[in-house]
Amino acid sequence: MSQPPAPSPHLTVALLGNPNPGKSTLFSALAGIPTRIGNYPGVTVEEKVGRFTHRGTTIDLVDLPGTYSFTPQSPDERVAVDVLRGRMADVPPPDCVVVAVDATNLDRNLYLASQALELRLPTVVALTLSDVATAKGITIDDAALASRLGCPVVRVVAPTGDGIAALGDRIIAAAETPPPQPPDLSPHLSAIDGPRPQAAREAIARYAWIDRAVAGVVRRTAPARRPLDERIDGWLTHRLWGTIVFIAVMLALFTSIFQLAAPLMDLISTGMDAVSAWAESLLPAGAIRSLIVDGVLAGVGGVVIFVPQIALLFLFIAILEGCGYLSRAAFLMDRLLVWAGLSGKSFIPLLSSFACAIPGIMAARTIENRRDRLLTILVAPLMSCSARLPVYLLLCGAFIPDVAVGVSWLRLPALVLVCMYAVGVVVAALVASVLSRTVFRGPPQPFVMELPGWRWPQPAVVFERVREAAWSFLKNAGTLILAMSVVIWALGSYPKPLMPAGADLTEAEQQGEALRQSFLGRAGRLIEPVVKPLGWDWRLGCAAVASFPAREVVLGTLGVIYNLGAVDPGEEEGATALVRRLKAATWDGTDRKVFTVPVALSLMVFFALCAQCASTLVIIGKETRSWLWPIVTFSYMTALAWLAAFATYQLGTALGW
Amino acid sequence: MAAGVSVSLDSIAVGDTATVADVLGDDAVALRLLEMGLTPGISVRLVGRAPLGDPLELEVRGYRLSIRRAEAARIAVTAG
Fold first, then answer.
1. How many domains does chain A have?
2. Do B37 and A335 touch (CB under 8 A)?
3. Residue B64 CB burial class (10 angstroms; 0-12, 13-18, ≥19)
4. Out of A15-19, A393-397, B37-41, which region has the weakest mean confidence (pLDDT)?
5. CB–CB contact B65 A73 (8 Å)
6. Domain presence at residue A189
7. Assign residue B25 a region: left if phi > 0, alpha if psi is -120 to 50, beta otherwise?
8. Would you say A155 and A142 are in contact if contact means Cβ atoms under 8 Å apart?
9. A67, A16 in Cβ contact below 8 A?
10. CA quadruple B57, B62, B63, B65: dihedral positive or negative?
């Protein structure tokens, strides 16, 4: 008699641990690349699941957000606890819990493990980094530890795969056996004197229990000489040397996202130009061709162009995080950012935003504290990104008199350029400090951060971090940015222009007429009363409105508006043509010049502070998982940009610049 | 610092070791400090300060922990 084949066994296993690289390495070693990255229902916390098969059993490994304890202090920690306690809607409680315990930091890691033992779920302790512990002179008797904890303990060296198969065996075996007994804290609780809140009493009792549990299990032999990582740490957090190394590392990070990404980005634009030219040659002239070439293909290019910077930045971050420098960097910069109501962890996201706010805002994922992360995201677009630079350069070069300021080598245009960068930083600091003391005021947030030991970054974890960042950008933000650029293309192309009868217009004049008559152009005319106090005529208003897809297009748009056709202001010829045209521009019906020093300054200040970058707003929406924040960002930045441009123009005019 | 006299952790010298006497306050910050292992009776060393004086780097229970001076001020310690 043949029996129907039994369904293959299936287990859901939760991976719990303190936030540290050991847990990510263990996840990669067990499950490889995550098979599902989603969102827990109702909360903005990432759900990461990896499916793998071990000896015929299919295991879904759920990577819980890193947490230090079961008294959650952040949404991420709350999710970890709720999933384990079966309180998360639509997420069944796991069949087994794997607790990643860092062998180099046993006491503190056992704190979470001892709380996990109270869940009455089958539990396995994975002792990670035991090779590093051995090198540091820490020996752990894992069999004795298992009997003290009452659950299996498996020694793993995740990077080499040692112990991973044994861990799989233990998970399957544990899921079929009754859960371990919870630790008995009562004798330790009664030993605590003095009035204390229950949670504090429990924390003290738990450490007393841990001290008993590890007594005789852990042996520490002082290494012959001071361990290498302690010596490295001494140098890298040193007042002088630490600061020098920090500046060098950050310079390397910054120039790489600026410089190394440039050839890759050029390659992408050249490739996209070729594809556009090919599409143009295939399709007959008309609305469809315009939609495909100027709408869709331009949009795809506009999305893919960000990938090199995102990948390079996350490569850097993953390496720094893997070797332990990321938290040192936050340690070194914390004081500076506290003045602005932020924390040390905001430094790298903000620095990266000088290259581009998109990777910078994504890098804010490394900030665990919700409030700090949101504040960082809100002010990151104020850092002058590389897209503003051509605008500054063109306007400074054309309209700021090239005179010396004080000393002969300090020229006024260069000084103005530096001021444009400074204005963004100062305004960001002010906005963050005001918001943190008003809208985001709350109970004091503990800045309690582990400084992990030095170790080599794990290539698998680094690769996964880069892949995940690039992929999530393309998949989540990319599609939306693409859709948005098609919409903006439509607004700039319709309604179709009515060419003045009888006039014989050149192609450039036709393009100018088309933009002026389009919805975008009409919007620019409509807002003329709003931009007039800034010293702008309606054409500048048009260009500012039309540059909503990205700031850098303002120059190209100015070219089109002034009937120069689609000039490339990045090229010598296009730039000089544009400058000549801008210098000659006069107010309609008069011979009063549009561009004066105050107008050029007010335009630059506006672009330094405005949120004219659709992709940035999309990424803010995606990263905060709420459309409220892009709206807030756009509103406050536009308001600030207008006010600052207004003040600049009025002041400049009053002073007779 | 005389033995037995309790001072706050932010006032000891870099390189000095002290014993935690108590963590003051009963809010989330105090609880997190206890949970990170700064429990009464444990030995803690001030490894260093960040270049601008804040935060501090501590060694406790065999690992490195960074806390701000405002938090360290709430940890009462005795010498040794």
1. 1
2. no
3. buried
4. A393-397
5. no
6. yes
7. left
8. yes
9. yes
10. negative
Residues on chain B touching A238 (C-beta within 8 angstroms):
48
Domain-embedded: residue A654: no
When computed from its CA atoms, the radius of gyration of chain A, rounded to whole angstroms, is 30
Helix (H, G, I), strand (E, B) or coil at A451: coil
The pLDDT tens digits of the residues spanning A474-519 come to 887 788 778 877 887 788 888 877 777 766 777 777 777 787 788 8
Burial A313-343 (b: 16+ CB within 10 A, else e): bbbbbbbbbbbbbbbbbbbbbbbbbbebbbb
User: Nearest-CA residue of chain A relative to B36?
Assistant: A108
Q: Which domain holds residue B26?
A: 7-79
Task: Give the closest residue to A485 by CA, choosing from A640, A633, A272, A257.
Answer: A272
Residue A287's H or E segment, with its range, is helix A287-290
Judged by CB atoms closer than 8 Å, whether chains meet at A332 and B34 is answered as no
Helix, strand, or coil (residue A200): helix
Asked if residue B1 belongs to a domain, the reply is no
ipTM of predicted complex: 0.94
Measured between beta carbons, which residues in chain A are less than 8 angstroms from residue B56?
none
pLDDT tens-place string over residues A152-164? 999 998 888 899 9
Mean pLDDT of A319-340: 88
Nearest CA-CA distance, residue A107 and chain B, Å: 7
Whole-number CA gyration radius for chain B: 11
In chain B, the number of structural domains is 1
pLDDT, position A370: 82
Average pLDDT over residues A223-246: 78
Tens of pLDDT, residues A176-226: 999 999 999 999 988 887 788 889 999 999 999 999 999 999 988 876 666
Q: What share of chain A is helix, strand, coil (3-state, %, to 5)?
A: 60, 10, 30
CB atoms inside a 10 Å sphere around CB A251:
11
- The verdict on residue B35 lying in a domain is yes
Q: Which residues of chain A are within 8 Å of residue B46 when distances are taken between CB atoms?
A: none
pLDDT at A580: 82
Please, which residues have CB within 8 angstroms of residue A386's CB and are 6 or more apart in sequence? A258, A354, A355, A356
Instruction: Give CA A626 to chain center in angstroms.
Output: 15
In a domain? residue B2: no
pLDDT digits (tens, 9 = 90+) for A122-144: 999 999 988 888 888 889 999 99
Bin A632: left if φ > 0, else alpha if -120 < ψ < 50, else beta.
alpha
Q: Name which of A147-161, A322-336, A487-501, B33-47 the model is least confident about.
A: A487-501
